[in-house]
Design a protein that fits this description.
With 142 residues, the chain is an alpha+beta fold. The chain is 26% helix and 18% strand. The protein has a domain at 55-100 and 112-136: so0334 like fold (2-Layer Sandwich), CATH 3.30.1910. Helix 2 crosses helix 3 (120-141). The chain starts with 11 loop residues before the first helix and ends with a helix.
Length: 142
């Protein structure tokens, strides 16, 4: 490829317009703002990358809600509320009932051992519980 070759214009006019956002300024003139990987080029502080989600495990039958638990597969929490209280709600939470869980018809008993994402309603309830506990702790410190 020639280093002095003309730029590729095969993208067409319509596609070129998708690369720009026209933004009126206070003097009503239009300036182009170019987007580069989702971050406006005029930003001095680009948006930091999202923190990697960690996965925490909750087994309602054999888990324990104590601070020394790690929330791992081998050392799960007992309740989703406690896990959210310990780590916040921006992580992934997998749950199961290893001994009392129901087995779907036509499945074997190993289906109880499968980790499943926490239900949205359960996560909402756990967030509420965590907020209540944090407020309670703040009142006790005052």
């Amino acid at each position: 490829m020639n280093a002095h070759a003309a730029p590729d214009t095969s993208r067409g006019r319509f596609r070129d317009r998708l690369d720009k956002i026209y933004h009126p300024t206070m003097n009503d003139s239009h300036h182009s703002i170019y987007l580069l990987q989702g971050t406006p080029s005029f930003c001095s502080n680009p948006v930091p990358p999202k923190m990697a989600e960690q996965t925490y495990y909750i087994d309602e039958d054999v888990g324990e809600d104590i601070a020394s638990q790690a929330g791992t597969e081998s050392s799960p929490y007992k309740s989703l509320g406690f896990a959210v209280l310990q780590h916040g709600d921006s992580h992934q939470f997998l749950t199961r009932k290893s001994t009392t869980g129901t087995v779907p018809e036509g499945s074997d008993s190993s289906a109880k051992l499968e980790w499943k994402p926490a239900a949205k309603a359960a996560l909402k309830k756990a967030k509420s519980y965590a907020q209540q506990q944090q407020k309670k702790a703040a009142r006790e410190q005052s």
